[in-house]
Backbone:
């Protein structure tokens, strides 16, 4: 699925992120998170979500997915979407991309952090799919691993601390944010995995036992 053009785009994004200290998370509890690897996974989620779909501008969606987080640095990442859009604009001009196509990619990148736009009347499908792909990463089994690695970096003193962190993070109550039926199903599957894991872990740790606090 990844063609040579996408490989070139990804290589540029990796180099850009490296130059601007944007690959590794600035959060000391999350040194394991790679913004570049997240980008690759979001692109693959876009591939999966668009399987069999018609009337989708795949080139638009996949290009936006590759560049959507290029604006990350080691600080002030609340504004990364706009920086990413600007960085893509510079790349597009330097490489002679078609102007109308570039403008549409810029718009997708600029708004991808505002997930409320997914449910706005008239939201285009490429924007919805990009946001769904972004949200699906690091959920489910990956979310559990994230929680456990975070607690390890926080020097948790017992298993129960990890359990309670999972309950507050990966297993917290939240509405299914997806719009397309395929993404809704994947989200539910991911949440079911976490819920089942948390239940089994609670049983293994004897959470709630009268002896637990001794």
Residues:
């Amino acid at each position: 699925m990844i063609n040579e053009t996408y490989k070139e785009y990804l290589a540029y994004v990796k180099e850009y992120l490296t130059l601007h200290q944007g690959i590794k998370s600035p959060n000391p509890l999350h040194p394991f998170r790679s913004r570049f690897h997240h980008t690759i996974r979001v692109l693959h989620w876009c591939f999966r979500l668009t399987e069999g779909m018609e009337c989708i501008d795949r080139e638009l969606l996949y290009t936006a997915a590759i560049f959507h987080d290029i604006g990350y640095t080691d600080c002030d990442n609340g504004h990364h979407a706009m920086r990413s859009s600007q960085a893509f604009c510079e790349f597009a001009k330097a490489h002679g991309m078609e102007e109308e196509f570039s403008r549409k990619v810029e718009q997708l990148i600029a708004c991808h952090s505002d997930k409320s736009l997914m449910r706005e009347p008239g939201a285009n499908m490429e924007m919805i799919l990009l946001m769904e792909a972004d949200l699906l990463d690091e959920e489910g089994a990956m979310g559990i691993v994230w929680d456990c690695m975070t607690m390890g970096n926080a020097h948790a003193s017992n298993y129960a601390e990890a359990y309670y962190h999972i309950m507050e993070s990966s297993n917290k109550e939240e509405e299914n944010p997806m719009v397309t039926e395929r993404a809704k199903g994947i989200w539910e599957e991911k949440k079911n995995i976490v819920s089942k894991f948390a239940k089994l872990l609670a049983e293994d740790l004897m959470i709630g036992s009268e002896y637990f606090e001794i």
